[in-house]
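Chapter review. Work through the record for Pyrroline-5-carboxylate reductase before attempting the end-of-chapter questions.
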Amino acid sequence: MEALPIPTETYKLGFIGAGKMAESIARGVVRSGILPPNRITTSHSSALRRQAFESFGVHLLPGNDDVVEASDVLIFSVKPQVVKDVVLQLRPLLSTKKLLVSIAAGVKLKDLQDWAGHSRFIRVMPNTPSAVGVAASVLSLGGAATEQDGDLIAELFGSVGKIWKADEKFFDAITGLSGSGPAYIYLAIEALADGGVAAGLPRELALGLASQTVLGAASMATSSGKHPGQLKDDVTSPGGTTIAGIHELEKGGFRGILMNAVVAAARRSRELSQN
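Structure tokens for Pyrroline-5-carboxylate reductase:
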């Protein structure tokens, strides 16, 4: 049976799994005005998790079955190791009228579709900066998911950052770059701050400067329209302080190390998804 379009003006959104990522997405959706909180539902046994969602108006229901029944769009935001059991348990209720979305890392569309009994599924890879509205997310459409379905999910996840569409074959590499990448940048911020301390700065000032410098550089890279190499050249004067620092980074293999980190994480993602 052909899937019916989701009613974009009146649809209801449900979260299967009420963890921090689900909360970030729900908050973004409400904050941006895409959906009012009274059209979002979830369920959780923990009083703390229930309170987190209730604090901005989301309806808490007794169980996952109730969330499925109440929703047109369902986001599976449970841990990867339990997503199979959860989808299989709910399968009798997962008709093609419902658009299904998974944010479980490493779980392939083919498996999700087999477990659900149909292929109106979309896989999304968000990252942890969803919590502050600057995520880098990527989506891939399942076999029966329409372009309109994809646009609807892109709008939802666009409320917590930027989103791209890509073939699922790229998802291991995406995991290695944007999924794991925030940790690389936290390490860089910590190292920059340590460098500031080594050069004589108070710790608090060094950390604040390091964090804001990374934020500013990322903003320039995304908004200036310039290649990052050009931005680097713009701040690097002949015989100056910046080129002296860059020379040290190049001697240490800075770029190669970051490239290797992305490739290693992508390789590990591929290994985990094959288990």
